[in-house]
Amino acid sequence: GAQLGTVVSLPLSGLICYYMNWVYVFYIFGALGVLWWFFWMCLVSDTPETHRSISHAEREYILSSLKDQLSTQNSVPWRPMLQSLPLWAIVVAHFSYNWTFYTLLTLLPTYMKEILRFDAQENGFLSALPYFGCWLCIILSGQIADYLREKQNFSTVCVRKCFTLIGMIGPAVFLVAAGFIGCNYALAVAFVTISTTLGGFCTSGYSINHLDIAPSYAGILLGITNSFATIPGMVGPVIAKNLTHN
To answer: Where do the domains of the chain lie?
Structure first.
């Protein structure tokens, strides 16, 4: 969802800036967020039992599928959570991935404009290209991960570690390589696109691992890891700006 939203919003932002004014980017997307809130309140339910439009067969299927995975414990086991090494491993992975994600998200349009000299329209569309690749990779990597686990008998731990490794090392290699190609437009866009695309493997790595280690509390675990993982969104672009004065 985040990647697909970026694919849509970056080109639209470029067009809005070109034909209107940059302030309308915030007005329009803010209004769409409020509009979506009304749909969310009408369509979403807390549990399958309280859903207003789900069929009886689908409700029973979901409940039976989750019966053996969900905990019946009412209180949240905060202490065991915070003492869990697998949870902190996810925190480190999530933090590391988001450093690249947020830095590129905020500074890629600047790189496209000031270094590669693309105009507003080209900037929006080309800045969206890496996230389109990432969106496709997320879908494909999920299918590959399930195939390896279900058909090839790879362990869940092995799949999660391998996909996280690909989603971390691959982007790092191509992002570093992009820094050595100067102003070669085609290679710059290609390397950044490949880098961001390979990051999609992390979704079938550390990202889904919240459900593996604690299905009943996956939402809480994601809240914990994502709280740490938003820190790069604040400090990453600032550090990148200070490192690239020219």
So the answer is: 79-243
What lies within 8 Å, CB to CB, of 192 at 6+ separation is 104, 108, 130, 174, 175, 178
40 vs 112, residue with greater confidence: 40
Domain 79-243: assigned CATH number = 1.20.1250.20
Reported as type and span, the H/E element at residue 111 is helix 85-114
Under DSSP, the state recorded for 50 is G
Per-residue pLDDT tens for 168-190?
999 999 988 988 887 788 888 89
How does DSSP classify residue 75? S
Q: Please name the residue that has the structure tokens 């390589």.
A: 177
Q: CA-to-CA distance for 135 and 204, rounded, in angstroms?
A: 12
Q: Residue 66: what pLDDT?
A: 72
Q: Which of 98, 72, 84 is nearest to 168 (CA)?
A: 98
Interval 27-74: pLDDT, tens: 999 999 999 999 998 888 888 888 888 888 988 888 887 776 666 667
Reduce the secondary structure of 118-178 to three states and give it as a string.
CCHHHHHHHHHHHHHHHHHHHHHHHHHHHHHHHCCCCCHHHHHHHHHHHHHHHHHHHHHHH
Amino acid 139 reads: I
Q: Is 31 helix (H, G, I), strand (E, B) or coil?
A: helix
The three-class DSSP label of residue 41 is helix
Q: pLDDT digit string (tens) for 75-90?
A: 888 999 999 999 999 9
- Alpha carbon distance 36, 40 (integer Å): 6
* Contact between 196 and 171 (Cβ < 8 Å): yes
